[in-house]
């Protein structure tokens, strides 16, 4: 919430904005949703329009610009969507009757009888009495996009961006806008050194929403920074990469006859794997078993059985490594262990495939975002740094 400089907004009109984002490396798309019982898309005196905006730094820097429209020397780029522009793009006429249906027009200067045969004079007269349009104002007249590109270096410096790069669309649902309020904004990533190296979910990003019923103006920034990523249960499978790497390092230590290191890595692998399996057994599988419509190939019992087999195998591997130093035929025992571990890895591969085909995608499709957030808050391992 912007409460540092005038015009201050001490009480937010929009308490929460749900944001999702995805990028292909050259463009980034944002989906914003917020509750709003009204549809305010009609301009007029003291009419306040629903809208939202997304702000990005112009350059990548360890010290990010201030979220209140940037700061001197740290320009921000803003994509700004408005509900009235959306209505115009979707076909609402750009005339007085669209705003006041009962209005009666007596006369327009450009339609005067002496100008009927002079198109150039008609155009000049029309421009004379529509100065904003004549000066090329981006906020007047027909529009191709309901989004405007802006730049700023702090409060009171907001101005049109030199290039229009953003696209967007707002959708009204029976319950309100979006979910109940939605606007989707897509823009080019102007700073090429800012291109992400993967498809990503939104982390920390300034975004804003304006509500007509609270008489929000563009300068009165109702700013809320949400730190939650898009809720995707399948992201928990990233833990598998961490686990797989630990097992690979364990086997490499075996090949170098460094059995102490191999046992230590296997213990680390086991600890990480067991934490992940506990998350699945205590959080995911109970919901899946109770609410999901799963096929026989994705039955919950199969996951529990696989986990039991994996625990049993790991106990055997650890005991074998502990006994290796006293083995008279070390090479033979090592080859037998590696053969058993190869069988174990095939079991893990089939198990991971079953999770990727059924458990995780079914939960993602079944659960609402709020339920996913709650589940993700409870898990211990998320596939990040451990």
Structure explained in plain terms:
By secondary structure, this protein is α+β, with helices and mostly antiparallel strands. The protein folds into two domains: 18-94 and 142-224, Immunoglobulin-like, CATH 2.60.40; 233-378, nmb1532 protein domain like (Four Helix Bundle (Hemerythrin (Met), subunit A), Up-down Bundle). Helix content is 38%, strand content 16%. A six-stranded antiparallel sheet has the order 6-5-4-3-9-10. A four-stranded antiparallel sheet has the order 1-2-8-7, with no helix packed on it. A hairpin with a 3-residue loop joins strand 1 (18-23) and strand 2 (27-33). Helix 7 packs antiparallel against helix 8.
